[in-house]
Amino acid sequence: QVQLVESGGGLVQAGGSLRLSCAASGRTFSSYAMGWFRQAPGKEREFVAAISRGGATTYYADSVKGRFTISRDNAKNTVYLRMNSLKPEDTAVYYCAAKLGTYYYTKLPDYDYWGQGTHVTVSS
């Protein structure tokens, strides 16, 4: 069982930056590939970024490529999402997710555990 707690969301102006954190419980964090997803009001949850369990491999949605960076610190049981050059269309609830596995995964059903989400609002 893995419990995930996101933090770092908030209100930011367009062009600004935020760093989201996701702290995981348990002693086997390094066994899990991790992902970030987001859900805007009235829309379906969508993939944002993913990272392999060792951190060597990352993958991004086209909409955030070049602006967002996913990283992890296995010693701290934490995965991060650095978001730069934020746009109003990035406004959403951001969720982290964990999947027992080696590589990166981009589909919602791939993931075994989910956090409760953190709100990000980007004003124009």
What is shown here, in short?
The protein has 124 residues and is mainly β. 0% of the residues lie in helices and 49% in strands. The protein is built from no helices and eleven strands.
Structural summary, described in words:
The chain has no helices and eleven strands. The mean pLDDT is 96. The strands form two sheets. Strands 2, 4, 5, 6, 9, 10 and 11 form a seven-stranded mixed beta sheet that branches. A hairpin with a 4-residue loop joins strand 7 (68-73) and strand 8. It is mainly beta and 124 residues long. It is globular, with a radius of gyration of 13 Å.
Keywords, separated by commas or semicolons:
single chain, 124 residues, 4-stranded antiparallel sheet, 11 strands, globular
Strand content: over 45%
How does the helix and strand content classify structurally?
mainly beta
Compute the separation of the termini in Å: 40 Å
Number of strands: 11
Largest sheet: 7 strands, mixed
Uncertain segments are none
Which range best describes the helical content: under 10%, 10-25%, 25-40%, 40-55%, 55-70% or over 70%?
Answer: under 10%
Element-by-element helix/strand order: EEEEEEEEEEE
The gross shape turns out to be: globular
The average pLDDT score comes to 96
Tell me the radius of gyration. Answer: 13 Å
Number of helical segments with 4 or more residues: 0
Task: Summarize the SSE layout with pairings.
Blueprint: E1 4-7, E2 10-13, E3 18-24, E4 32-39, E5 46-51, E6 58-60, E7 68-73, E8 78-83, E9 92-100, E10 113-114, E11 118-123
Parallel strand pairs: 2-11
Antiparallel strand pairs: 1-3, 3-8, 4-5, 4-9, 5-6, 7-8, 9-10, 9-11
